[in-house]
Amino acid sequence: MQSGVSATMEKSVRFARGVSLADKTGLISLKNLSREYKSGARTVHALDNVSVEIARNEFVAIRGPSGCGKSTLIHLLAGLDHPTSGEIFVDGLALHSVDDAALTEFRRRQVGLVFQFFNLLPTMNVLENVSLPLLLQGVAPAEAEQRAEQLIELVGLRERAGHFVHQLSGGEQQRTAIARALVHRPALVIADEPTGNLDSHSAASVMELLEKIGREAMTTLIVVTHSDDVARAASRGLEMRDGKIVGDSSASPS
Known about the structure:
Layout: H1 4-12, E1 26-39, E2 42-55, E3 59-63, H2 70-77, E4 85-90, E5 93-94, H3 100-110, E6 111-114, H4 126-136, H5 141-154, H6 170-182, E7 188-192, H7 200-215, E8 220-224, H8 228-233, E9 236-241, E10 244-250
Parallel strand pairs: 3-8, 3-9, 6-7, 7-8
Antiparallel strand pairs: 1-2, 1-4, 4-5, 9-10
């Protein structure tokens, strides 16, 4: 029997795609990217001369042990941090050289973030949480609500749209967070351990959703994970050790 998530997603998959599945132009380009921190007299090489290209609409899983540089990498990709050296381009924007105002606009319009602990606003219901990124962009409330409803349908939560965070399961909260990350039609969605705080049933529902996003090429999706299931669902896997990318595996083209 088809799950609720699958059924509703089949109805709504065309919600916002501005590029086709066949679009393999580059979205992300990292060139000799490094990030160093000082710890007393010691220099920590959180990222060490990383170079990689990621195509538009790829689903990439990043794996590696704690402290290998995964979090540093996604913070740089999201425009939340500055590299010590090297270049980072996302959708043509040079994140390594633009000012803070440009980075703020980039984060607001081009990036969707999904966190392990959801980061939903408890005083808002599902519809209000999902609408919020659009309202912050200045989208009219009626349009924001309509687009949010499409995404809520997409993630299988239409019957929960009026519920508050405390009334949702962990899986429902994470699916709400994914809808919020997609609603403004970003070029890039970054998910940091999206199933790490969920039980097996809830993790499976979120996994199904991530697989669908990747399969339908709704956006470029980068997921940091320790989950074998998430890694297998991705079209490409990057393995990190000691601030470097030490493995890069892609699924065979169909």
